[in-house]
Amino acid sequence: MLRVNFRNKRSRKQFIFYSLMIALPVLQVVIFYFGVNINSILLAFKNYDRDTGDYVWTGFEHFTKMIKEMTTDVTWAFAFRNSVKVWLVSSVVSMALALFFSYYIYKRGVLKNFFRVMLFLPSIVSSIVMVILFRNLVDNFIPALVLRLGGEEMLGLLADHNTTMLVLIVYGIVMGFGTNVLLLSGAMSSISTSITEAAQIDGANRWCEFWRIVFPQIFPTFLTIFIISIANLFSNQLNLFSFYGSNAEAQFSTVGYILYKRTLSASYAEYSDLAAIGILLTLIIVPITLGIRKILEKVGPSND
Amino acid sequence: MKKLIALLLCIVAIVSLSLVGCTPSTEKPNTVDSTDEFDRDTKINTGKTTLFISNFNGAFGEKWLKAAAARYEEIHKDDVYEPGKQGVQIWIDNAKQGGKDIISGMDNSRDAIFFTEYVYYSDLVSSGKALDITEIATQKLTKFGENKSIADKFTDEQKNYLITKNDKIYMLPHYQGFRGITYDIDLFESELLYLSADKNNGNDGFIIDMDETMSKGPDGVAGTYDDGLPATYDEFFALCSKMKDLGITPVIWTGSNPVYFTEFLASLACDYEGLEQSMLNFTFDGTAKNLVSSATESGITMMGDTAITPNNGYLLAKQAGKYYALQFADRLLNKSSKYIDLRSVGALSHTEAQKTYIASRFLSTESTIGMLIESNYWENEADDMGYFKTMAKQYGEDRASRNARRFGFMPFPKATQDKVGEGVTLVDYLMTGAFIRGNVGQETGKEYEKALALDFLQFLYTDESLVEFTLYTGCPKSLNYNVDSIMDKVSPYTRSVFEMRARADIVYPYCDKDIYVDNASNLNYANFYKTVVNKGQGNTPYQYPSNTIYKDGVTGLEYFNGLSVQFSKEYWDNAYSRYYI
Questions:
Q1: CA–CA gap between residue B155 and residue B159 (Å, rounded)
Q2: Which candidate from B21, B532, B542 shows the least CB-CB separation from A129?
């Protein structure tokens, strides 16, 4: 807590410096977070009036309409199913891989720095570049290679609907877990070596060390990453827009993709429906996120 | 040292990976191509008054605007718009922003006039951000030697849409885009792919030599430009089979933009339905005459005439045109027939499809491709991308340049024999527009800007400018004007487009009805091809007929019946009941 003594010149200067430093981020949050979200919430209760160019109050009309659409339109059913599927696979596989590689790096395994850079590289290279490279690999190179090796003409792995979903999920995992590795290995590196050395002296093997010492110590970081992934459940696009633009197939769409795509093409009058969807999804995901956090905090390992 | 090398390698890796995604820009900000035929200022000339124009620099390019700008600058070289400056400089800001993005930011733009596509006109008007251009649109263009106004060049549909309830105009139509089939005239001639007037001539109904009398084509009239071209779907697929026999791949299109094929099918359906029936999909006001009551393997049975209102718009999912278009797709995408280049359902981009189509005549590694499903602007786009130049360099100007190649816009074959001889219906799907920033001229010191912008926009819609547009792009502006004077100067492809256009009804897929205006993106004409089909794994949503039929094994019939599952009464009631009458 900053205590300001305005009679003290030094304290006054510190306050001004602090205020100036904090002003821009605060302004940013006020305008681009609170402003945008409050406006979006209000929009859900309004209709667009073309004669005046303003939005006018209409009550819950858009909510009833969108609840019905989301519960009866099979496209939404698929989108919900895909979003949950993607989250489950990504969370389990991606987190497991992230933990494994983080521990490997933490234990200074062979080529640890190479892995650290290579795993993080996709996160710092432009996503569209990675998408172009990957799409060329799976949709052009692999079919051409198969043909060259005497196989039959085939569709690319992304183009072939039998493999599209799997390839998208694998791509999402590979692209996503570099950041987790960075965060988890950072948390691991802050574990006191005296604890792990003591465990080794007591005869703990790697497996035991990981589960009894390391994982409990990094659990708060793990929990944060996990909770963020739940909160992003309905905004995850599965990189569909990067791969397909607005042309992804309905059967592979996620909730995040549908929302993004519809927002891109919506007319003014259609924004209110989308705002209502946003609120409805928030109402679904907030209790889930808070509930899971509470449960994990209770049942998760203690770092004491 | 080791660390330094590692760091450098990382930087090199990251930079080179990042550069992979970059393609050399065709734009040269503040410069003009040295080979450019227009000798224009390369920097903002402070001695002249500058008018900034935003141009959607896609398939239609910027040459047309440069040409018009050069003429305008020459005419007004001695005029004074602001103190201390003489003449005017038209500065073109090339962009690829659609109407929606432009509207949201146009208040703060330096550009005075915007040429773009996919404009929701109602949003443009209600936002209050566009200038009222009624005066220049409705006054006779007498100062340019014409006795018509710009509004006189609108079609009736455009008048209904663009002239607001209080008789104001805020936007003018820009260019025109039609989805269709392009065929290679040289290939058709060399391989004798035209149909003969004599179906029993011993060559499966195809001509034996170019002197043989050809069939009458879809217009049913001998001696017209479509002679020898397939008149019906059956003849089209006979043509595809003939091509296959000759080792030619019949058709290619972009796989990475499956909506192109969907829009093509929608155009095919509109050609079946005609203008009035097609417009029901947007107005929901009229009588549907071609609704299917049931569709099975053995065929379709028709409903009687049905009044369409917003209350029962879902019934339009049963339009026979959609049924026949999906049957067409079913036959074209039949895996065993191998009528398509497999990349059409893969990752091929639209420009790669154009390049592949052009190059296939020459490359030994490619099977020659007979037809391309694209839009009427593709030839210009491919030219701007340099594909013709590249081919001409390798295979000779006389064989491979744009001027040497002869393509044609194939009139849509008809679904059934009884439709042969009926008119052509095309869909201008681009929703293009030109408009002026509403706050133009309000900035201190720029009071001249409004009058200048209005004058230049009007200048661009004179017959001379419209014809010039076609000369440079090979494409039509979305207005009625006569291009006879330049038909000997344009490519065979452009000629065929204009021949079709001259006798076609044109569907503009929008209207001023509340139900359409409030739901413009949902009621986009390609969105009517969302379907739900149960292939044994429960109801599954599909959106693109090309992918769904080829990859998911859904038949055209299943796809068609699924349209009514997607657009059910329940769905319709929920989405549009507030517009019910």
A1: 6
A2: B21
